[in-house]
Amino acid sequence: MLRNDLTPMQYRVRFVDGDIERTHYTDDRRYYERLIAAHGHLSELRIEPLTLTPEQQQRLDTLPAGLTPHDAGIYVRYGTAESEDSPHFDATLIAAYHRDKAEPAIKGERKRAEALGVVHNGIRYSGDPSNRQAMQEALMAADDGGMTVFAAWKDSDGSYHDDVPVVDVRDALRKIGQRRAHLIGLEAQYVAAVADGQADGSELDWSTPHD
What we know:
Blueprint: E1 11-17, E2 20-26, H1 29-38, E3 42-49, H2 54-61, H3 69-78, H4 94-115, E4 118-120, E5 123-125, H5 129-145, E6 149-154, E7 160-165, H6 166-195
Antiparallel strand pairs: 1-2, 1-3, 4-5, 6-7
Helix pairs in contact: 2-3, 4-6, 5-6
């Protein structure tokens, strides 16, 4: 966030790395434009000017002496140094920093769990955003046309099924929504637990009553 001279960098950069949302600060936007263009697993690049909040600007203007650029950046963002040995460490304020560190990987895990979807009457329906949208569009078309059966339905494993009842697809979408809500609840619990050091982010259980 801050340069070695403790002045703010120009840009905040956000992109998706697989399922993980990453945030960086830089003066060289072209580096990230080339990086995303060169790697297919990186996407959704967003580059915006770095603008400090009034509180962050005040912290920057009154930075305590002796902070490294890393600790100074955390201090400006959160109001605390990272090191517990620092006289500027605040155990309450550092919790937000730990949550922000834990959240991207856990959110990525939740999205992967969500994408598995559900199996309803022997047909798998993915829970990823594109499939949820496709199911909603199919159901709207069925409602508009007074359909009660989809003559052919392609499931999320690439198999075709004949005469799938519209009510089955509707029930599957509802089940996906219920499962997604449960997973988001687990995500919130796990972010808090990992940030507090009470859980290992690599050993999280994403099972739900709707699996």
